[in-house]
Amino acid sequence: MGETRVDLLHLLEDLRDAYPGILEETILTEIVANSLDSGASRIVMEANPSEGTVMVRDNGSGMQRKDLARYHDIASSTKRRGQGIGFAGVGIKLGLLVCEDVLTETKRGRTHISTTWSLSSRYRAPWKWVPPQGMVAEQGTAVRLKLQNILSPLLDQGFLVGVISRHFQPLLDPTFGTILQAHYPQGVVFEVNGAELAPQRFESPVTAPLEIRLLRKRKPSALGYLVRTDHSLSEDLQGLAISTFGKVIKSGWDWLGITPQTRDRISGLIEVPGLASSLTLNKGDFIRVGTRGGTYLAYRKAIQEAVQRQLSDWGVVDSPVEETPPRQIRPLERDLERVLEDLSDLFPLLGSLVEHRKGGQKRLPLGTAGSYQEMRAVLVPGETPHVHVEEGKEEPMIQPSANESPVVTSTEPRPSGEDRSVVSDFLLPDRGSFRRPARFGLGIQFEDREDDREIGRLVESTVWVNRAHPAYQRAVGTRSVGYHIALAVGMALAPLAVEPPHEHAFLTAFLSSWGEASLPKKSKRRKR
293 in a domain, yes or no? Predict the structure, then answer.
């Protein structure tokens, strides 16, 4: 009988490569994330360069004996998706790559145990029970890493403070105390070498709060801010960062799909606890397919609309650089909009890609319906009252309150029946600005990927068609580019709309709807 062997060193190196930052930063971030998942309200870090050790201790729930034994297994975890931001203790496992020894001590109730762990060869990582060292006094877990390199950045106090400030900024910013209170009722305190990290706020002359609410929800579903400075920011501060449960997942402008004219002078942060269930396995990105992918894209679209409105108020509208599509794409995009609208009832997850405009587009089943007055999206403190405008008359100016900055609105009359803004049925409309926001529905772009056998792929809310694919080249020669693009869009949307076993049925329905949308409408004969 044979035996399955695992190259642990190769596996850990692959896990390391899955994270964008340096290894030491990943180790520390994952250890802290697992401490937060255990319910810790205080996390202490101590670096001892003379001994070459760094220790992270928390006052969380601790572990039982069987849990500590499983803690040494690769890809073993009792966590459920959406309930945490750490990945199966991967920080400790990656620590084996840079440590001579990993000592773990935990205490829960009467259980007070400890183990030591190391990577002895490519295929073996033995661990054993050892007497507790006294790192944990009452309750919680402590991890001590004995580093191989005495010049490791983990031994630098400044490095420890910098990693916490970058990756867990919402936990240090009092702005997010209200939205994170449900998950961290006692708050979180960080201590590095005996000194507590002070609360941190982004000081800027111009700050705009961001607040997004779901239908019929009083509490905000996402909370954050945008800041504008008069000087260029460092690259890691540029753009909007998005976090969940206090851990920053992505940052910059690329993930948002918006590029302001002064992108190097605008920064921001938004906390969305509801996206915890949409995190990937390594908790370093968001899922783009299925139900969880639809949730992420819906939140992303709402954030896009809120940020776009604020950038327009600042006079710094986005300037996307997009390739001019062929002439065949313009009518095709109109047909695809009709297809997504028609299929949104059967496949609700497509609602995050539907551009809502005037003219009575369908209300998507992504939330409980409510009246227009009950819905609101707040970008500034306080609420702007809804003013009824009679047909054919201009909308009156709304006077700001004493503690509110004046709101500049246009007094140009609009055609009767025009919607006040582009409104998402999943999230709430804006305060009634006349300025038309940018389009955030499904987009089609082209790229050349010779080594990729897929004819198209969905990135955020854009389908990228592979022009280097042989099928595309033949479609050009046979003048069937439109059908090829429609097929590429359908295949790219299938993993988002349905589960894998139902992708064929979705593609059939998609192509049928697309074919009907391209057919000319039959005109009825008028009776004399």
Answer: yes
Could you tell me the sign of the dihedral formed by the alpha carbons of 285, 158, 194, 169, in that order?
negative
pTM over 0.85: no
Average pLDDT (487-501) is: 86
Nearest CA among 84, 85, 448, 492 for reference residue 288: 492
Q: Could you read off the pLDDT of 258-272 as tens digits, one per residue?
A: 888 888 999 999 999
What CATH code is carried by the domain that includes residue 242? 3.30.230
- Residues 56, 31: contact at Cβ < 8 Å? yes
With a CB cutoff of 8 Å and minimum separation 6, the contacts of 351 are 294, 298, 344, 364, 365, 366, 425, 426
Rounded CA Rg of the chain: 27
90 φ/ψ angles, rounded to the nearest 5 degrees: -65, -25
Residues 19 and 66 grouped into a single domain = yes
State the first-to-last Cα distance of the chain, in angstroms, to the nearest integer.
Answer: 88
Tokens read off for 116: 């030591």
39 assigned to some structural domain: yes
Mean pLDDT of all residues in 154-178 = 94
Choice between 355 and 251, residue whose per-residue pLDDT is larger:
251
For the ranges 58-72, 206-220, 458-472, the maximum mean pLDDT occurs at: 58-72
CATH code at position 79? 3.30.565.10
Q: Are 265 and 311 in contact (CB under 8 A)?
A: no
User: Do residue 147 and residue 53 come from a single domain?
Assistant: yes
DSSP bridge partners of 46:
55
Q: Which alpha helices (H) appear in 242-392, and where do they start and end?
A: 290-314, 329-343
- Mark whether 147 and 227 lie in a shared domain: no
**How many domains are contained in the chain?**
2
Domain assignment of residue 42, given as a range: 8-171+180-192
State both tokens at 264: 């190097």
Asked whether residue 275 is assigned to any structural domain, the reply reads: yes
| pLDDT band with cut points at 50, 70 and 90 for residue 70 | confident
User: What confidence tier does 175 reach under pLDDT thresholds 50, 70, 90?
Assistant: very high
Residues 132 and 15 in one domain: yes
Reported as a single tens digit per residue, the pLDDT across 340-378 is 888 877 887 777 676 554 444 443 333 333 333 333 333
Distance CA 460, CA 257 (A): 8
